[in-house]
Amino acid sequence: MIDNAYILDNGAYSAKVGLSCHEEPKIIPNCIMKAKSERQRPFIGNQIEDCRDASGLFYILPFTKGYLVNWDVQKTVWDYILSNDCCPSNFSESPVIITEPYFNFNPIKEAMSEIFFEEYECQSFLRVNAGDLSVYHYNHDNPGTLCVLLVETGYSFTHIVPYIQGKKIRNKIRRIDVGGKILTNHIKEIISYRQLHVMDETYVMNQVKEDCCFVSEDFSRDVEIARKKYPENTIVRDYALPDYTTIRRGYIRPLDSKEECNQQTIRLNIERFSVPEVLFHPSDLGINQMGIPEAIVRVIKSCPEETQPHLFNNILITGGCAAFPGFKTRVYNDVRSMAPYNCKVRVTVPDNPVTYAWHGGVLFSKDPKFYNYAVTKEEYEKEGHAVIFERFDEANLNFA
Amino acid sequence: MAAKASAVERQSGRIKDSNQKRILDEASRNRRARKALEALEQDNFHDDPHADLVMSKKIPKFQETIESRGSRKKKPKSAEYYKQRFRKSLAQMVEEDKNYMTGGTSYITAAVEASRYPDRHFCAVCGFPSNYTCVPCGARYCSVRCLGTHQDTRCLKWTA
Ligand SMILES: [Zn+2]
Ligand SMILES: [Zn+2]
């Protein structure tokens, strides 16, 4: 058994990285940022924590619409991640597990293999969907599970993926083009129009989203509450924005707070839940697609009939957007109302939906199966990309 | 007095006329909607504050890690090398994928269908549910007050 596998869950927003002997992964913003206030240097990944003034950050991202296309940016971030400043490893000893999105494109797959084998000289390598590792994690925690319906709701998009006996059913996967990025841009847009110009404040507004937004468990009820005046309105909040001299991170401020506040504040009312609502009704923003609960039911009903009760009973939700309070209950309520009445519906959101796949990678690296799945440097040198495609893409690996 | 009133009448008649002429056609409305969706995908809304900054200078190199262990034989390739080496755009890859993936689900066909349920409508100004549609531009509004704000700030003033 190996305890030094290098696991890199390479998300479009953040990379989750660490050795399998680590308790928790490091969470590294997968981007380069430039600050108005500092001409000296760009900030790579979590170096942004050293930045005194994070207002007006300029983002340079390796991913476009969920796929890795800016290789100079990714290489720069990976070089940093693998350096002594972040999470170094000796690849002559550590096998590597790296994640990719569903329906990743062949040129991207080849580039990943080339960089890891030729540039970083790793000895053995496994490329999987982050969702595969989440499902492995879930199966590990729930022995005897036959099917899992995975909802992965990340930065760029949301995927609904059925797994039957550990294997994903590729032809049934569906994607909703809504993720955390759109939600952050949307909250920026509406606050800028209604209150204060924050279009250049992605970093701060992303924190506002994380600190204030929730998924409504009953949308029309919450709309009526939001129409009321404080204190009957139990939803409305003020948010003090960071000024980077006295406070570095914004915070929620009660409306009746007597404490003096020199910070600029914004008021969040219906925005607190109308923003995540886009995941449930993309058409609210003019995106002509169904929302998560409807898509779950649609995907399950497209699967073989005998698997459907198992899928309804094992709905697993991961990814950054799953961290909104209320997510699990809302998905349960909506799916329950659309599912056959005699089907048991069970929804799981892990305590940490962001690192769940990474921990699945840790567990999987200790499974003897891992050795059969990973491709070694020798194999790659002898057979090139063909052996990799055969193993990772055509074989449809089993994550039960 | 009477003359004044009729002038006002004439004027408001003209305003009405010009408003009626200025109704966004279907194509412009679609273009606006598309622009709004594209904006939601943008990484930044402002320009790079230090576009001239040479980025490679202070970036720690992977080689430092390896070299410190004294086992590195070959020179690492630069970020710029990989930019040149792998330069396919997403649009290109999607196009190639279409030809490669005959049968079976691909990136394009994995996009989920439209909802079976009717669209909901929200006021473009305040965000609450709305019952009315602005005639010139098709935006939604909920009250006379929000309509006023909409006309003063967006509506036909947007150049999309
Ligand atoms: Zn309104
Ligand atoms: Zn209008």
UniProtKB/TrEMBL annotation, chain A:
Keywords: Cytoplasm, Cytoskeleton, Nucleus. Pfam families: Actin. SMART domains: ACTIN. SUPFAM superfamilies: Actin-like ATPase domain. The keyword Cytoplasm applies. Its main location: cytoplasm. One of its GO terms (cellular component) is cytoskeleton. Signal peptide: none annotated. Belongs to the actin family. ARP6 subfamily. This is Actin-related protein 6.
TrEMBL record, chain B:
One of its GO terms (cellular component) is nucleus. Signal peptide: none annotated. The keyword Cell membrane does not apply. Residues 11-29 have a biased composition (Basic and acidic residues). InterPro entries: Vps71/ZNHIT1 (IPR039723), Znf_HIT (IPR007529). GO terms for molecular function: zinc ion binding. Residues 123-155 form the HIT-type domain. Keywords: Metal-binding, Zinc, Zinc-finger. GO terms for biological process: chromatin remodeling. Residues 1-29 are annotated as: Disordered. This is HIT-type domain-containing protein. It comes from Bemisia tabaci.
